[in-house]
Queue: 2 jobs
Job 1
Amino acid sequence: MRKRISLITGANGEVGQGLIRDLSDSGDAPLLALDIKPLKDELRPRVMNSIEGNILDQDLLDYLNSQYEITTVFHLAAFLSTRAEFTPEAAHRVNVQGTINLLQLAIEQSQWQARPVKFVFPSSLAAYGLPDLETKAAAPPLKEDDYNQPITMYGCNKLYCEHIGRYYANHYRQLAPQQESFYVDFRSLRFPGLISAYTVPSGGTSDYVPEMLHAAAKKQPYASFVRPDTTIPFMAMPDAIKSLLALADSPREALTQTVYNVTSFTLSAEAAAERVRQGFPDAQITFAEDRNRQHIVDTWPAMLDDSAARRDWGWQPDYDEERAFNEYLIPVLKEQYSS
Ligand code: SER
């Protein structure tokens, strides 16, 4: 008998950790955590099993296929946008081949289980690429299909994987003679920058806001790598987890597209610094632009249009800017770093 589980890849990342906490509290299917690094000790009691391994290791994926009945895959493992630019081909292997490996696992599972396995995939505002700051300033909140010309390896990878997921969901091996086939139930979210009170991201380009917050809470100076006027949308981590779970739980018939924008509030780096100073009056925040990272953020939209998610599956964030800083980020950070 194969053990029935939900699989989380990239389980040790920021989103993975939040997802494990929420899913284990809700008591649904037991969790199998997969990550390149050992799972954090405090999360171990929350999962049925945790495996240290690489999503490019086909033997490992074959082993998972033989041991487990996977009902849902939350495929979170990825190189983020800044890190991916240092080793673009390695990022492509993990972000694209890794995703195809997981989709292949999900389709094999769908076929022997004779029902579609759910595959939940976080994409990103990095899938957009606006040509210049004038266009960015004049643009309305972007819909999913606007300005899909990303300039980073990560953005190209995410955009392509959205398409490859749609292919596995609707058109996989469409010319092969088949009796009855079950495809993957692929669902994807495009996240804005995410901010967690518990963890700092590693290797992203929207990291300047979480970094300035965590530095202030630790009483350390911080130099933002983008200009004060740099503006993109953000979301508090609890809303990111809420949106992943809500999309995963939505009835298939309600979904009219495979990719949905979700967002909460738009913030300039200077406005973020002001919020941080209100919570931590001794914060020492300066601005020291990194030209390359700045260029990446300048191609990302200031606002996302998430009306399709609101319409199809009732998406609504709990944390606007005020609540995110004053009821979640600042109080939790103060408590965390006081001990
Ligand atoms: N936050 C991510 C990054 O900066 C984008 O999805 O890479």
Job 2
Amino acid sequence: MLASGRGSNLAALLEARARGELPVEFVLVGSDKASAPALRLAEAAGIPTLALDPRSYPDRRAFDVDLFARLKASGAEWLVLAGFMRVLDGEALRPWVGRIINIHPSLLPKYRGLHTHRRALEACDAEHGASVHFVTAELDGGPVIAQACLPIEPGDDEERLAQRLLPLEHRLLPAVLRLLAEGRLQWDGRAPRFDGELLVAPLRLGDHGLQPQQRPAPAPSSP
Ligand code: GAR
């Protein structure tokens, strides 16, 4: 797991595991900020931590190369970015492609990058949400696995919208990680597959967990 800040998504994963809903072992929580509360959460849970300071590397690439070397040494098979606020070097992450996921607070492909809540409000969108996607060299551009949506309400400002979205993020990320751990979700480098089938649209988080989106019924053929 990599996290730069608060760590509420990390906490949600730890809680899901404690409830017996997440068949994974957390081997390392890393951060680019030694003061990240996410690291304190990990320590409290007895998970080894790693803090690397980007300022002590000559450039971005050198940081990423060292980071990924340490992640590999930890024995991690999967990498989860949960509020990790750095752009990763495409070359350095290449060996992990297909085994690294990220949670992003927008309905991708809308609003890659920062200030997603503000941008959804400014665009007068009717709905907003969060996405979990496979990470590629393209920022927030890898194949989207699953999304959680919520309607934007008249009283929403940036903060309120972020606050209302967060509980959905906390269900979305563990649900996706569970599917990966169970082998129900894979990416062969070209397309994600869910239960062996090509994932043509992101899974949707509903009351009963993640569900494939209904495909429109084929148009009746004319006589
Ligand atoms: C979450 O809202 C997550 O979606 C977002 O950062 C927050 C981290 O919160 N991630 C990004 O913006 C990545 N581009 P947390 O530290 O409480 O989990």
